[in-house]
Amino acid sequence: MFDIVTVGSATKDVFLFTKQASLKFGINSHFLELPLDRKLNVDTKMEFTGGSATNTAATFSNFGKNVAVISKIGNDSNGDFILSDLKARKINTDFLIRAEGETPFSTIIVSKMNKAIILVYRGVENTLTFDELRDDFSAKWMLIGPLAGDSFSLLKSLLSFCEERDIKVALNLGASELSLGIKKLGSIMKNVEVISMNSLEAREFVGLSNDIRNILELKKKAKIAIITKGAEGSIVADSDRIYYAQALKANQINYIGAGDAYLSGFVTALMDGKDIKEAINLAAHNSAAVVQKYGAKSGLLSKYPDTMIKIKEVEYKKQ
């Protein structure tokens, strides 16, 4: 039996650093500006594995969990790169689907101010269906990350599978699922132990502008709801309490993988029988460690932190 199986994307991430990309400020957003019709020098290149399924699996493996990845990659060199990295991290790859076509990859353009643009190519990930997945395994947990292709159908089947097998679910929705909204997607959200998203995603998914109201709506669909707020920390709700956690001060140079690090750290602590505050603490430290290094796995922790962040606990009335 696996302690946990992670489902979602597996990518190769290529970071390209160029001093010729500059930050441009806008009214509602910021942009990277690149000069047209000329060659731009790449000062440094770095390559890593990425994607929600492999990022979260890396945390679990670091903490000694028996973890497998379910994802779809191509029969190409990028697929070989991912497979080699997972095996080196002692992550089970028996359920990784390899198909004709191209492995998903991301190209991240990083400016001299450490601001980045991510260009994502989904490749064969867009064709993943539930029928392709092997079901000859048992697991205590399944972490389902953002899904591509017909994500609604795939998510519905995965949740039904977990309900039938008595597998606890941690859920991190992607853009296509979030766009469906809580009214439609909520109807299939069964057996969800933990749901996690950032503040902007929660506002899109639930449709309210207030984080507290949003997390209470999310709490109706899961035993534990999480809203991460970047430098402002995080909010977690369980059966009768809301926890307000501060963010750790960190020299942030990267944001890729921060959400995966938070959720996988949180679930790791739950698997180890820790309480909510200890789970939040590991999640916050794991996320803070990741943003200080390039690559979604480079800073991941392998032991519990020695220090505890400030967490305020408030009771609320069940709705």
Number of strands: 17
| Residue windows where pLDDT falls under 50 for at least 5 positions | none
CATH class: Alpha Beta
Helix content: 25-40%
Order of helices and strands: EEEEEHEEHEEEEHEHHEHHEEEHHE
Radius of gyration: 19 Å
**Distance N terminus to C terminus?**
37 Å
Q: Could you state the CATH homologous superfamily?
A: Ribokinase
Largest sheet entry = 9 strands, mixed
Question: How confident overall, as mean pLDDT?
Answer: 94
Strand content: 25-35%
- Counting DSSP H or I runs of 4 or more residues, the number of helices is 9
Physical arrangement of strands within the biggest beta sheet: 6-1-11-12-13-14-15-16-17
**Total discrete domains:** 1
Shape: globular
Which class of secondary structure composition applies to the elements? alpha/beta
Describe the structure.
It contains 9 helices and 17 strands. The chain is α/β, with parallel strands linked by helices and about 325 residues long. The chain has one domain (about 1-315): UDP-N-acetylmuramoyl-L-alanine:D-glutamate ligase (3-Layer(aba) Sandwich), CATH 3.40.1190. The protein has a 9-stranded mixed beta sheet, sandwiched between helices. It has a 4-stranded mixed beta sheet with strand order 5-2-9-10. It has a two-stranded antiparallel ribbon with strand order 3-4. Strand 15 (about 235) and strand 16 (about 240-245) form a beta hairpin. Helix 1 packs across helix 8, helix 6 crosses helix 7 (about 210-220) and helix 8 (about 260-270) runs antiparallel to helix 9.
